[in-house]
Design the sequence.
């Protein structure tokens, strides 16, 4: 997935996570929503990227935003944060 694809796909996955959809269709392929083992956070794994909702239980600025009602999703490649979608707005990181 290139950067343009990521910018197109991330908002679709964001909508699926925050509408609590069990799956999302990207370019004809269906991906199932999974949950993290410890915190039960919603996530999707697509083409080497992880799309993960913000954990509101954490002690961070972003967790505080989530507790305030903002919808925040992170896009990771391995352990590196590459993008954030907050309230539907995509932001490339780094």
Sequence:
């Amino acid at each position: 997935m290139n950067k343009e694809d990521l910018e197109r796909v991330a908002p679709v996955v964001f909508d699926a996570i925050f509408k609590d959809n069990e799956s999302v269709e990207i370019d004809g392929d269906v991906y199932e929503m999974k949950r993290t083992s410890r915190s039960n956070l919603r996530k999707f794994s697509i083409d080497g990227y992880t799309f993960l909702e913000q954990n509101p239980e954490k002690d961070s600025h972003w967790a505080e935003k989530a507790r305030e009602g903002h919808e925040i999703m992170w896009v990771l490649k391995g352990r590196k944060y590459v993008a954030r979608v907050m309230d539907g707005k995509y932001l490339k990181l780094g």
Notes: The mean pLDDT is 97. Residues 3-18 form the longest helix (16 residues). The radius of gyration is 12 Å.
